[in-house]
Amino acid sequence: MSDAPDGREVLARVVREHAGRLAASLVSLLGDFSAAEDLVQDAVETALRRWPVEGVPDRPDAWLFTVARRRGLDVLRRESNYRAKLARLTWPVPAERDDRLRLIFTCCHPALSRPAQIALTLRVVCGLSAAQIAAAFVVPESTVAQRITRAKRKIGEAGIPYRVPPEEELPGRLGEVLAVVYLLFNEGYLSTTAERAQAPDLVEEAEWLAALLVNLMPKEPEAAGLLALIRLHRARGAARFDGRGRLVLLADQDRSLWDRDAIAAATALLTRTARAHRRPGPYQLQAAIVACHAEAASFAETDWAQILVLYDMLLHVAPSPVTRLHRAVALRHVRGPEAALAELDDLGSALERYPLFHATRAELLRDLGRDDEARRADERALRLTANPAQQELLERRLGWD
Amino acid sequence: MKYVLMFVETEQFAQKLEAMGELERQDAYEAVGRWFAEHADKITHHTHLAPVHTATTMRLDQGEPVVTDGPFVEGKEVVSGFAEIEVADLDEALRVARSWPACPIVEIRPVA
């Protein structure tokens, strides 16, 4: 392997760290989200062109600032008040902690559609280009560019404010931000598109964003819960696919490949958070469930009773048919396949189009020796999933019968 | 910034209102009155429309104007009134809309 991918990774990290900061302070300064974002994007594109040739400068943040400022003075001729503000600006710009938070809350404003929130967050907070976002989601670049343009226009024209919401609105608005990060993670972890099984770049962006939120909002336990959840999943990443890129189920994973240090660190973060706040929420509870799995020395030693309790708590704070499906899997190990299958009967109408519902049903039916029904359920799951690794696993299973 | 809140009625809401007793309906109207009083400093103008069966639509894009009975889209959701408000930004407009006590849908649009 050449050095090139590593170099690109370093570059991506530097851009991610500094583009968002610069965007945050420029939006604050100009009070115009769209104009500020254009300047940063220009600077980032220049950096991505020149740094691979000239090397990453000693102070990448100062470099990006200088390029964005010069560009601003050049292009904002008609907006003389912006130019005046930019002209007065000197390095280092005051990078307020709240500036970055404001940026995130604006990108994830509920008046924007979810795809727009996601594209805007990746672009503005993480500094990704439209082309990179398009590649990550396997959609045309023009679609992403249009989504971002529309979202920026809506921010300006509909008067979406650039501010951290007040205390009484914070829970709902933070929920919106966390949902965006969680979706990014999910899409990266197990892609819903046919082109590839996972998109590790998105997982990395999601982890970075979650860590940023934990830093910026230390009083919000759910941000820490989400970070722990992402890290616990990532710690087991090496065992999820075999040498040929095939998906390996939890029961069959080689646990010696799990990163025990990372699991211990994420579990410690979760415990610390739970003790300090005593406010369990959906992300902390999901992370606790994953921690139970991650701490078990073998599949047989999994503490299913504890997991079942956690699922009950999770369903209490966040009822969802998908969570009930996962709970049924835990129930299978505590009370047997019959009890689990009975639970699934209730979920059929809600999860009719959800491939994992049918795959789980197939497993339970097979446990009960009802092989014909199991086969039909697996076939149904296969028709519903677009993920190539899931398809391959189901095909393998159908081949065994 | 100026925004218009468009109040949208659903069929279900209309039926609920229909089924109300006299006292209950009076309560509902009073809640609306209180909402207008509470936000009087922000409301610059408001209008309540007559029921949708009184609507007439004219289409001007087909040569001669075409006049038809009914609203411009036939649907279960119809605009029943407007309030124009003057607030700082969308978040404040959303806050005003959140406490609206009557019909179940409000569309919020900035005034150009």
UniProtKB/TrEMBL annotation, chain A:
One of its GO terms (biological process) is DNA-templated transcription initiation. Keywords: Sigma factor, Transcription, Transcription regulation. It holds the Pfam family Sigma70_r4_2. The keyword Transcription applies. Residues 104-155 form the RNA polymerase sigma factor 70 region 4 type domain. It comes from the Bacteria. One of its GO terms (molecular function) is sigma factor activity. Belongs to the sigma-70 factor family. ECF subfamily. PANTHER family: BLL6612 PROTEIN, BLL6612 PROTEIN-RELATED. This is RNA polymerase subunit sigma-24. It comes from [Actinomadura] parvosata subsp. kistnae.
UniProtKB/TrEMBL annotation, chain B:
InterPro entries: Dimeric_a/b-barrel (IPR011008), YCII (IPR005545). It comes from the Bacteria. SUPFAM superfamilies: Dimeric alpha+beta barrel. Gene3D superfamilies: Dimeric alpha+beta barrel. Residues 1-104 form the YCII-related domain. It holds the Pfam family YCII. Belongs to the YciI family. PANTHER family: BLL7171 PROTEIN (PTHR35174:SF3), BLL7171 PROTEIN-RELATED (PTHR35174). This is YCII-related domain-containing protein. It comes from [Actinomadura] parvosata subsp. kistnae. The lineage of its organism: Bacteria, Bacillati, Actinomycetota, Actinomycetes, Streptosporangiales.
